[in-house]
Amino acid sequence: MPEPSAGLKSAATADGQTKDRWLGGRLTLVQPKRGHRVGTDAALLVAAAGAPEGRIVDVGAGVGAVGLALAQRSPLASVDLVELDPELAQLAESNVARNGLQARTRVLRLDALNPRERRGAGLAESASCVVTNPPFFDAKAVRASPDEGRARAHVLARAEASATLADWIQASLAMPAPGGRFLMIHRPDALGAILAGIGGRLGSLALLPVYPTNGASAHRLLVSGVKGSKAPLRMSPGLILHQADGRLTPEADAIHRGDRLIDWGG
Questions:
Q1: What is the per-residue pLDDT across 212-239, written as a single tens digit (0 to 9) for each?
Q2: Cα separation of 51 and 34, whole Å?
Q3: pTM of this prediction?
Q4: Among 27, 138, 182, 247, which lies 20 to 30 A Cα-Cα from 172?
């Protein structure tokens, strides 16, 4: 089933971009008209994160949607938007200003997988919360889309070479302080690689499957954990996105409008 627009209300601009109202109009985002666009995955990650305070790092931030939504929700938080792609980082900068969040938001154009660049930006063990929506595929595993923007969003790459999901997770887990929270969204079939990347770095690990419809297999997996915790892994109640007639369920609709957080249970 196609991904819903996640509450986007779009107006095309003259330069291959759109200006969108997102999450029930809470945020205004300019993003590329073609390629990967802000959608359901971003809305789910925002709802999964709740309202964290302190320093939030959005790894692979794209145009800044997730990090900016959390900055807007949490007035006591500051946000670092980490993005390697120069065009997306520039759009993220413009979106920070467009939403009046300059005082609490930085855009860091760097390779998050490079330890020296992370340290230079002050990202080592500094965050109370790290959120990430990694590209879904390793470069060696798939044929990249001919659309450059979509390829960048869907295939893992770094400045020097190809990367793996485990590389991405381990780099992201270098950023939370002890006791800090980590959240990500990915594909359920990548669970083995996700757990391998996490290793013993997280406890209180929770897995929440997302189903396109009732009775279908999960097509997304939300992951949450606490750095340094020794609490055991648990499965959280799943979330169903669509009713039988194709409309969003009331819970999913409220998440897309920014009116509801995800219940992790337990």
A1: 999 999 999 999 999 999 999 999 999 9
A2: 31
A3: 0.89
A4: 27
Ordered by where they begin, the domains of the chain are 38-256 (3.40.50.150)
Helix 165-172 and helix 191-198: axis angle, to 10°? Answer: 40
91-150 pLDDT tens trace: 999 999 999 999 999 999 999 999 999 999 999 999 999 999 999 866 555 454 455 555
Count of Cβ atoms closer than 10 Å to residue 10 Cβ: 16
**In this structure, what token pair is assigned to residue 266?**
């337990």
